[in-house]
Each structure stands twice: as C-alpha cells, then as structure tokens.
Specification:
alpha/beta; Helix Hairpins; Chitinase A, domain 3; 3 helices; transcription regulation; DNA-binding
C-alpha cells in the first residue's frame, strides 16, 4: 500500500469482529457441511457441496482482505487530536453550501465510510478538501454534479 490505512478504534474493532465471526464461527460450520455433503457420494449434483465450496471461497477471500486491511491499519483515536481548531482525522465537520444547506460529515477511515450516515472516507474528495480546514474557511469540492463551494461552520471531536 502506498498510503497508511487510517482507522478509528471503533472501525478497527468492527473489522476484527467480522474477521473473528467468519473465521471462528461461520467457516468451521461450513467446513463441516461440506465434509458431510462430500460423504454423500456424487458431488457433481450435490447442491450442499457445490454451494458450500462456493461460499467457502467467498469467506476465504473476505478473510484475506480483512487480514490485509487490519495488518496495514494505523489506529488513530480522534479524541487524542491535539489541534482541535482544524478538521483532521476523526473530526465531525458541519459545512454549509451557497444556499445555507448544512451537512454534518465525520472524517473516518476508508474501511468504515458510510456516506448515508455522514461518515466519509479520509481519502474521499470531500474529505481531502476539508483536511486542515478551520471554522470560517471556504473549500471548493469537485463533486459528480459539478464543483461546489462549502464553508466550514463547526468542527467537533469526540
């Protein structure tokens, strides 16, 4: 990876929980099902066996991805941010557009981003535009609908 995978402690815990659930619970059950299905004879028309092998490959692929992401993760606690006057990783930023429509965005790791909940990834265009911004700063953001200008109204940290 060319850049660090910043993530909040809660985001890292979520990755770890998913990994442990897949590796410790779902995968062993699936292996048992596949072994049972394989013992039933003809595997070419055995739905349990065929589906089980397909699902096992999906789980193994996801486990590999989660393992890589956790290994590259750099856990950053937003509550420990020294400079709280500027928007850095973990900040909750309130911005207003030209029409005074406000949006509340939290800058989080790319693996924990959820735009619908207002959590945007640290490397997203909007987050890159907000990095280092202070209250009152104007930032121009290139969005799919075109370029827009936003004013930083408030910055908060947990």
């Amino acid at each position: 990876m060319d850049r660090p995978n910043y993530i909040t402690p809660a985001g890292y815990a979520a990755l770890r929980t998913e990994y442990e659930a897949l590796f410790g619970v779902e995968r062993p059950k699936l292996v048992d099902t596949i072994a049972w299905a394989a013992g039933n004879g003809d595997r070419s028309e055995n739905g349990d066996y065929i589906y089980g092998r397909k699902r096992l490959r999906e789980i193994d692929r996801r486990l590999g991805w989660l393992s890589k992401r956790m290994k590259a993760a750099k856990v950053v606690d937003p509550a420990a941010q020294a400079d709280r006057t500027r928007a850095w990783f973990g900040a909750t930023v309130t911005v207003a557009d030209e029409n005074d429509n406000e949006r509340v965005l939290t800058l989080v790791g790319d693996d924990e981003a959820d735009a619908g909940a207002g959590r945007i990834g640290w490397n997203a265009p909007f987050a890159r535009a907000l990095r280092g911004a202070a209250i009152g700063d104007l930032r121009r953001v290139a969005l799919p609908a075109g370029e827009r200008e936003y004013e930083v109204v408030a910055i908060a940290y947990p």
